[in-house]
Amino acid sequence: MDPVEQPNDGQGLTALSRSIAGLSALVTGAGSGMGRATAHLFASEGAKVAVTDVDRDAVATVVGEITTAGGLAEGWTLDVTSESEVDKVVGEVAERFGGLDLLINNAGISTFVAIDSPEYLTTWGRTIDVLLTAQTLTIRAALPHLRASESPRIVNIASTEGWGATRFASPYTAAKHGVIGLTKSMAVELGRDGITVNCICPGPIHTAMTASIDESDKTTFARRRTALGRYGLPEEVAHGTLNFCLPASSYMTGAVLPVDGGLLIRNA
Ligand code: NAI
Q1: Is the dihedral of CA 260, 261, 266, 268 positive or negative?
Q2: What atom in ligand 1 is closest to the CA of residue 209?
Q3: Which domain holds residue 214?
Q4: Is the residue at 89 inside a domain?
Q5: How confident is the model over 60-102, as pLDDT tens digits?
Q6: Distance in Å, CA 216 to ligand 1 centroid
């Protein structure tokens, strides 16, 4: 329902919903880290959650966790770089859940490569495919279903690498800058359909992606670079994502939200 048509609360204010209960959500890369935390949070808020990941076992595990906790989740093995798989899974999710309202583009890999390495172009192609092109595939597949939704939301997960750069991470950094550009483009292009498109830039977060970094190195980095002086939790990022997905967040679009403990604003 268009927010301007929402019932008035009797005091001249429009009553907007802060509940995603009953909405249908698809999360990519939901087998681990921030995707898993997002799937759990959305299910605990009453959404029907499609847990998708390239890792089949992780999908089964997360679906089991959510179901045991009393949430509603179903799993699909999905490699987001495959257009045919994306089309098939998005169609199945929409059919199974009676539509699709919330698309969370989260799946990702971390890559490091020097510009003059023989591996550079292979790494570049793979990184752009998983982090950036995949988000266009899911958006294209989800579009007819989002257009039919009363509260359609897309949230793309970028990174603080979408603002700055880390040595030897040029494919990752370029992809994450691209995610921010794609978010803005989609916000403009899909706004007339009432679809909001926003983007989260996580800072350093404790997940499988950062698990190989030595704990003392993490502490040193976080104390030196973030305002809060610590790594973040995947759950803290999931709450940022949830905020964008509330029906009440109907006038927020094209936004780029750092969830980074203050990394981007810290000079010294
Ligand atoms: P993670 O490694 O815990 O989870 C990533 C998930 O994506 C895994 O379950 C993996 O199987 C899945 N995945 C990888 N390739 C896939 C593919 N082709 N198709 C489907 N699924 C695939 O990592 P994390 O940290 O939770 O990452 C989530 C997102 O957050 C990523 O986009 C990452 O780039 C981004 N990010 C992570 C940060 C961090 O500090 N952990 C910081 C900034 C951004």
Answers
A1: negative
A2: 2
A3: 24-252
A4: yes
A5: 999 999 999 999 999 999 999 999 999 999 999 999 999 999 9
A6: 22
In-domain check, residue 205: yes
In this structure, the residue with its CA closest to atom 3 of ligand 1 is 33
Give me the CATH number covering residue 157.
3.40.50.720
Q: What is the pTM of this model?
A: 0.97
- Residue 12 domain flag: no
Extract the tokens encoding 223: 């104390």
**CB of 137 shorter than 6 A to ligand 1:** no
Q: Two tokens at 83?
A: 């257009």
Ligand 1 midpoint to CA 74 (Å)? 20
Please tell me the total count of domains within the chain.
Answer: 1
The rounded distance, in Å, linking the Cα atoms of 220 and 251 is: 39
Q: How far is the CA of 257 from the centre of ligand 1 (A)?
A: 18
Contact 198, 252 (CB under 8 A): yes
The answer to whether position 221 is within a domain reads yes
